[in-house]
DNA sequence: AATCAATACTTGATTCACTCAAGTAATGAA
DNA sequence: TTCATTACTTGAGTGAATCAAGTATTGATT
């Protein structure tokens, strides 16, 4: 489990609750991944392959070095969850796609990671809209 | 930068905004730590030493193995930010405390990590209360 | 057509976080 | 006095992440 990101001195109740939410969310994500013997990073990459795409696109979206993606994808490939195919349009590039097993594992991960769904589900539709509006405003 | 924890398929707007918030929060935390040449884990441990305490207490609070804390504290000690003192009441145990430099770095970290403060600050006091109530309800 | 910088990705080296198993030393209860 | 427990450290191993350097291909320029 990664250590929580915070709290520094929380200066308001809202900040403290926000931190708690994030901590619980992050831990739930990691735990769901661990149920499937995946790391958070692996679950993250697997979840972004609904469509086949290049390594570079993944690195850019995830804001990390390309070599990091190379590594993570290599492990997922070793697990039989993704496949790297040559890109017919550009022989430098490779397209990554989930295998059928990868689809299944990804699906099971989505089922195992219930936290966000459950948390949101505790709110009425009206409350969900309020929360969405507040968070959007907070995000600026 | 750690890869983001999500989104799987986001099944509602609220879930998507929540994920975005968490992603931005986590990245801001890591970036603030990086400004001070700290890792997230180091900033986290440093931030939990407002009072001197034992290694075991830290490990329990942070939900990780004691040996993980040993390592992180050793690095912080190497940086001169914390000190390990013998516990006069129990010679097996050691008490960890921030040094004056550690206090200063921790203070600067709290200043550098503006995200949560800023985000909450975009809301009126009433809205902050609403958000707190909604998040508490969502947390169950 | 030939050249060459830019692009897409990989490889290798290094650091750190994290976990588990095993070890040491001190404590406290029988 | 014995011995399990506690508190922490050490060592080994994995994975994430970054950086620097390398390869192959592409595409623009001459």
TrEMBL record, chains A, B:
Molecular function (Gene Ontology), one example: DNA-binding transcription factor activity
Q: Where is the HTH marR-type domain?
A: 11-140
| A Pfam family assignment | MarR
**Sorted alphabetically, which InterPro entries does this protein's record hold?**
HTH_MarR-typ, MarR/SlyA-like, WH-like_DNA-bd_sf, WH_DNA-bd_sf
- One example of a Gene Ontology biological process annotation: response to stress
Instruction: Give the Gene3D superfamilies listed for this entry.
Output: Winged helix-like DNA-binding domain superfamily/Winged helix DNA-binding domain (1.10.10.10)
Q: What's the superkingdom here? A: Bacteria
Task: Cite the PANTHER family for this sequence.
Answer: MARR FAMILY REGULATORY PROTEIN, TRANSCRIPTIONAL REGULATOR, MARR FAMILY
Give the protein name, as stated in the record.
HTH marR-type domain-containing protein
């Amino acid at each position: 489990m990664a250590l929580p990101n915070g709290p520094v001195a929380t200066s308001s109740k809202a900040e403290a609750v926000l931190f708690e939410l994030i901590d619980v969310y992050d831990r739930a994500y990691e735990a769901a991944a661990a149920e499937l013997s995946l790391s958070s990073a692996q679950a993250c990459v697997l979840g972004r392959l609904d469509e086949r795409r290049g390594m570079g696109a993944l690195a850019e979206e995830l804001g990390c070095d390309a070599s990091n993606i190379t590594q993570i994808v290599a492990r997922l490939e070793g697990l039989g969850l993704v496949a790297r195919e040559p890109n017919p349009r550009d022989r430098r590039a490779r397209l990554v796609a989930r295998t059928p097993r990868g689809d299944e594992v990804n699906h099971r991960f989505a089922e195992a990671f219930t936290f966000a769904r459950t948390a949101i589900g505790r709110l009425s539709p009206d409350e969900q809209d309020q929360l969405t509006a507040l968070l959007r405003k907070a995000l600026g």
